[in-house]
Design goal:
7 helices; 6-stranded mixed β-sheet; alpha+beta; 4-stranded mixed β-sheet
């Protein structure tokens, strides 16, 4: 290959970050408008395990509001697309028969990005509702307002809002190799990039440095933000970074079972192995995750660098 190769573009290819709804915040306080939208609305129904009602072939089964009858009631208003409203509802509120129930990870791998994104939003919000039973200030009973987005304490009047936990996830390189780790609960041979939750009083960049050091004892010199992914398992927001680090020997103590440096050749072989696993070698994060996008971004950058001829030096 000759000529100058371009640097890899923005992160892409992962789930829950593509085409989405107009969340139509102004409608959340308008019960009459929501009632008018209900008959032609699409309603995604989830069970207690956070699975969505699906067709027998695994595709989305979303009922029209008119077929369910009544009005929005306890359903959560998600937003609008092309003048069609979308709601999410607990299965316990509707006596419907499900040919199949599908979990979010499987849906993310097979459904169109819009539908899996709506599913992710619905799962995160309904999980928050299910886990928000009492006021965390006084212990009083709560009631949901604003189409399900506000939990209002009936005793002290405190309002509570859906929880989102920010976490960094980072592709760490020493300039030649990529740092990956694995948890003991993962499938054999699977490794992924380092991740961790942001702590109070901490910037994202400080979190990158701290988490990488705590989990691997590798020292980060600098980092750069690349993109984000909602990760509703149950309510995280993954903030993706790349980082430059010292070529320290990785050491683990607790959260990770193992961490090590991988060469471009090893990552390249792992990517080529997808779909035809031979039972040996490195396995990477699933394609629905921003972790995989970060690995592929590093791989593309290394490939582009190797394609660039060395700069000429004058005499």
């Amino acid at each position: 290959m000759t000529g100058h190769a371009s640097l890899p573009g923005p992160l892409s290819g992962f789930a829950f970050a593509g085409d989405t709804l107009d969340r139509a915040d102004a409608l959340r306080d308008d019960a009459e408008a929501l009632a008018r939208l209900w008959p032609s609305a699409r309603v995604m129904i989830l069970d207690e395990e956070g699975r969505a009602l699906a067709q027998a072939d695994g595709t989305l089964l979303a009922f029209e509001g008119a077929s369910l009858g009544g009005g929005p009631g306890a359903s959560l208003f998600l937003g609008r697309r092309d003048d069609v409203a979308w709601f999410a509802a607990h299965a316990r509120h509707h006596a419907v028969q499900a040919p199949a129930w599908l979990d979010l990870r499987r849906a993310a791998a097979t459904w169109p990005s819009f539908e899996s994104g709506v599913f992710a939003m619905a799962r995160a919000l309904l999980h928050w509702q299910s886990s928000t039973r009492f006021c965390s200030v006084c212990g009083g009973d709560i009631t949901f307002r604003r189409a399900g987005y506000t939990a209002h304490c009936t005793q002290c009047g405190k309002d509570h809002y859906p929880r989102v936990d920010p976490a960094v996830i980072v592709a760490v390189s020493d300039g030649e190799r990529l740092l990956l780790g694995r948890q003991a609960s993962w499938p054999p041979r699977r490794y992924s990039v380092v991740a961790g939750f942001v702590e109070p009083g901490e910037t994202l960049e400080q979190t990158v440095v701290r988490e990488v050091l705590e989990e691997t004892q590798v020292r980060v010199r600098g980092c750069r933000y690349l993109g984000a992914q909602p990760w509703p398992f149950p309510g995280a927001l993954m903030l993706g970074f790349c980082a430059d680090a010292e070529p320290d020997v990785p050491q683990v103590d607790g959260e990770l079972e193992d961490a090590r440096w991988f060469t471009f050749k090893e990552i390249d072989a792992a990517l080529a192995r997808e779909g035809s696993d031979d039972g040996e070698g490195l396995l990477l994060s699933p394609s629905i995750s921003i972790a995989r996008a970060l690995i592929e971004h590093w791989h593309a950058g290394m490939r582009a660098r190797s394609a660039c001829p060395p700069a000429e030096t004058g005499r």
